[in-house]
C-alpha cells in the first residue's frame, strides 16, 4: 500500500495552488467545483512522485487557530533533495516575503529542516 494523497483546507485556494506550482513544480489538476456544497479543490502532483496534495476550500469553512499542538494537521513536509537545497529554498522563500518559522537546523531525530508558513499560515517543512 501507499499513501495516495493528503488534503488540507485553505482560505485562498488560488494563492496556495500558485505557491506549490511556483516553488515545487506542482502540476495542478483542473479545478473542481461542486455547486451543491460550494467545495472547490485542486489535486497537485509533484515531479518526484509520491503522494498527491489536495487543497480544498469550503464557503462555510471555520478558521483555525493554527495551534501546532492541536489535534489534526500539523504541517506538510517537502523533500528538496539536499541540505544545500533546503538552505537555498529557505532563503528564496524568505526573500519572497514568506514568514520563516525555524531552521535550517538538524533536529533531535536527525532531520535537516526549516519551516516557513504557506500563504494562509499553514506550516510547511523543508527537508533533504
In CATH, the topology of the largest domain is named: 2,3-Dihydroxybiphenyl 1,2-Dioxygenase, domain 1
- Helix-strand topology string: EHEEEEEHEEE
Protein structure class = alpha+beta
Name of the CATH superfamily of the largest domain: 2,3-Dihydroxybiphenyl 1,2-Dioxygenase, domain 1
How would you describe the shape?
globular
Flag low-confidence runs. Answer: none
What gap, in angstroms, lies between the N and C termini? Answer: 24 Å
Task: Please identify the top-level CATH class of the largest domain.
Answer: Alpha Beta
What does the oligomeric state look like here?
A: single chain
Largest sheet: 5 strands, mixed
Please indicate the count of domains.
Answer: 2
* Total DSSP helices: 2
The total beta strand count reads: 9
Mean pLDDT: 91
Write the CATH architecture name of the largest domain: Roll
Q: Note the beta-strand portion.
A: 25-35%
Helix content percent band: 10-25%
- Radius of gyration, CA atoms, in whole angstroms: 15 Å
Amino acid at each position: 500500500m501507499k499513501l495516495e494523497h493528503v488534503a488540507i483546507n485553505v482560505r485562498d485556494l488560488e494563492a496556495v495552488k500558485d505557491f506549490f506550482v511556483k516553488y515545487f513544480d506542482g502540476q495542478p489538476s483542473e479545478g473542481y467545483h461542486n455547486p451543491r456544497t460550494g467545495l472547490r479543490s485542486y489535486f497537485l502532483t509533484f515531479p518526484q512522485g509520491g503522494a498527491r496534495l489536495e487543497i480544498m476550500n469550503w464557503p462555510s469553512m471555520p478558521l483555525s487557530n493554527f495551534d501546532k499542538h492541536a489535534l489534526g494537521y500539523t504541517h506538510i513536509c517537502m523533500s528538496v533533495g539536499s541540505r544545500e537545497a533546503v538552505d537555498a529554498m529557505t532563503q528564496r522563500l524568505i526573500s519572497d516575503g514568506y514568514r520563516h518559522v525555524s531552521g535550517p537546523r538538524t533536529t533531535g531525530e536527525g532531520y535537516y529542516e526549516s519551516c516557513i508558513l504557506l500563504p494562509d499560515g499553514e506550516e510547511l517543512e523543508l527537508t533533504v
